[in-house]
Every structure is written in C-alpha cells, then in structure tokens.
Amino acid sequence: MSGVIYGVGLGPGDPDLMSVKADRLLRNAKHVAFFRKAGRAGRARGIVEGMIPEGAVEFPMEYPVTTEIPLDDPRYNEVLSGFYAEVTAHLAKLAEGGDDVVVLCEGDPFFYGSFMHLYERLKDRCEVQVVPAITGMSAAWTATGAPITWGDDVLSVVMGTLNEDALADAMGRADALVVMKIGRNLAKVRRALEAAGKAERAVLVQYAAMAGQTVCPLVEFDGDVLPYFSIIVVHGQGRRP
Amino acid sequence: MSGVIYGVGLGPGDPDLMSVKADRLLRNAKHVAFFRKAGRAGRARGIVEGMIPEGAVEFPMEYPVTTEIPLDDPRYNEVLSGFYAEVTAHLAKLAEGGDDVVVLCEGDPFFYGSFMHLYERLKDRCEVQVVPAITGMSAAWTATGAPITWGDDVLSVVMGTLNEDALADAMGRADALVVMKIGRNLAKVRRALEAAGKAERAVLVQYAAMAGQTVCPLVEFDGDVLPYFSIIVVHGQGRRP
Questions:
Q1: Under an 8 A CB cutoff, do B111 and A84 touch?
Q2: Domains by residue range for chain A, with CATH
Q3: pTM above 0.90, yes or no
C-alpha cells in the first residue's frame, strides 16, 4: 500500500481558522514537510506550533538562496527546479514506502501557493490530495469589517510584482480589488491605484488573522515597504437592497 | 451583558472543510439562524445537519417570494429591505437580551454572501463577529486538480448575471477566471467565454466538495441550465519553474 501526500492548506495563520480536516490530518501526522528559508523556522511551521504529534518526523524543505539571481535569469528557474526535484524525490520515496506525508501550505494550496510546484511533479508518481483552505485575502477583507463584493461586482486579484501599467489597467477595470505580493512594490502599487482612481478607497491590512493584525486606509500609511503578510483591498460598491 | 451575533462561514459544503472555530461555535450554539426559501429545508442548514446541539433554538429566515418582481423594479428592493429589517430586529433583540446567535452562511460571509445584508443593518446595534471560510471557488479549483494561478497571474471573479459584453471584456483581460451565479445564464456565459478566447480551457465544476461533485471541460457539457452550486474556472498559465 502506497502512502498519500496531503497538501494541507493552513489558512491565513490563526490555527482556529484551519479546517477540521486539516486539523485532524496534522494532529495524526507521522511525516510533516514544509518550506522555509535557510536559517528560519518557517512561516507555515510557525502556524502549527504545538500541533504536531510527538515522534512525527519533520522534513524542512529549505529554499536555495536565490536573492543574487534576477527572476528572469534562466539560472533562477534552474536552481529552483533542481530544488523541487530533490524534495519531491524524497516525498515520493516516503509515499512509495507506505507512509502518508502532510505538507504544510500557508493559505490555500492552489491559490498562488508554493505547493503547486511539488504537486505538478508528484501527481503522476503517487496519490496526492489537496485540502483547500481559507485564503489570506478572505482574512483580510473580513478584518476590514466590510464585504469585499456586492451584487455583480467583478473582483480582481493582482500581484504587486506586475509592471505598473499592467497593474493600473487591471485595477481600473475591477469593481473590487485585492493586491498581494506587495513588499518592496508598495510605491508602484500606490501609483497604479492612483492612476486607477482607487487609492482613496484602498485599505491596507497587515498580518490578517495573526498576532499584530492592523487595518488602516492606505493613504494613512507612511512606509515604503510592507511585511510579507500584507494585503490591500478595495471594496466593491455594487447593487444592494 | 449583550450577546454576539456570529456570521459563521460554513465553507463550500463539506462539514470537514468548516473551520475549527465554526465547528466549535456551531456545536455550542443556543440560537441558530439561517436563510432559506419558503418551503425548503435551506442549503446552509443542510450543511450542518446533525451538528446543532439538542435544545438549540432555530430561526429560519424565509426569503419573501420575489420571482414575479424583476430585479430592477424598485419594489424588489423594497420587499427585500422589509424582510431584512424584520429579521435583523429579531436577531438584535436576542443579542440585546444577552444571547449569542450563530448565523449560518454558505461559503465565506463577506464574499458575495447573503450575510452582508444583515451585517450592514446590525453592526451599529450590537457586536457582530464574522468568521471567514473556504470559498466555493477554492473547492472548485481544488476539484479540478490544478492550481488556479501561477506567478503573477491576474485572477478575476465574475458573475454570470452580468451582461454579455461586460462578461466578455472582464474574461478577456484576466489570466485566470472564476465564473459564479451561472444558472440560466449558461448560454450567455459560453458566448462570452468564446468571445474572450477562453471557452476551450473552461472547466465546469458542479457541487464542489459536496455529494455528487463533477468536473468536466465546459465544451463537453450539453445542458443549458446549471444547478446553483456550479462554478466555471479557467486556469492561469503564468510563470513557473
């Protein structure tokens, strides 16, 4: 009997917002794998602190250092591909040996997640099951205390890593908006929101559903750089009775 | 001490995909409110069958019959507004009397949900807490066995109730796409997907994360009408190592 690789979405960060299924899989896990930066504890691992059973084998998958290689350099993809090949070989070997493995995934695995890179390499080699989860953006709009969409609103989700014109275009056409991957792109994201006429209504949420959660109008935020867990939302204004 | 109104997202339909928090609130509830159509058991109520504690008081909020009134007739909003005013008066009275109330919400309450209509009317009268949940669309893209987005993909969520030009425009500009509220709008949605060049890649998911879940390419589906729980997804094709 082969084992199953579970890509388990952990949701936005509060263990109370994990699904009943994720909670159960985790508390009964024999093997737990997770991505982390070299030298760090790992964000996904941090969410489940205290929940992994004693005796479970942990498999930290440490990203190779890529900060010196530009994203569009072919070597960037080469280094990452080698890394993914290496860790999936280990996971597949565990499954082939009959062991189930829980892979911790921040947020929802199939929504801008890292797990998809493992999934694409594992799905034809062993059984892989994905457990969906609450997205970080759901936690962010919930934190604002207002619905993200009404009626027939078009919601678009855009990454701050896009170029400024593409950002402004996508922002201008949506009724409701979510901006992720902001980090060092904040100044560009601000300019694009202004070009799209949405800067005044933009709300910045940091650490949604985590310790230190803050919510403020973007215009009232002074900084140039945001932490990883930052999301900007612009609420839709659609039809309502 | 006043009570709290909890808008509890139940997720896509599988009780195993409810959050740990939603599960706990529900299993300890003294008052449980939920929307339903007159004469029906109620979809949200159906999800939690067997989970509501004995002795809990149920408050079904039955939508007034509006099928004979067109959406753009002012009477439609009048009838619905009267209904919302009536049920929120009851919920507020319970909270003012010191009782907590769990309001069952399909999907994620602040994402195209019905709860927002109660929330807007209750938030200044009593304490209201919203528990986010896994969206139906997360369950749908998980069911397709492929990530919805890669890299910097723009994801747009559109309602089939939009007019055909608006649909085709929004569909054409997105990298990844989710179409909801399809129902009797399927023929229009198909034409818009074709105009946007995305019909060939569209995947139809019915009853995601529920009994009877089906996944098939939209081009292989013959019907003209879809059940309520139907979502079309078009996966993004973005950058990947």
A1: no
A2: 4-131 (3.40.1010.10), 136-234 (3.30.950.10)
A3: yes
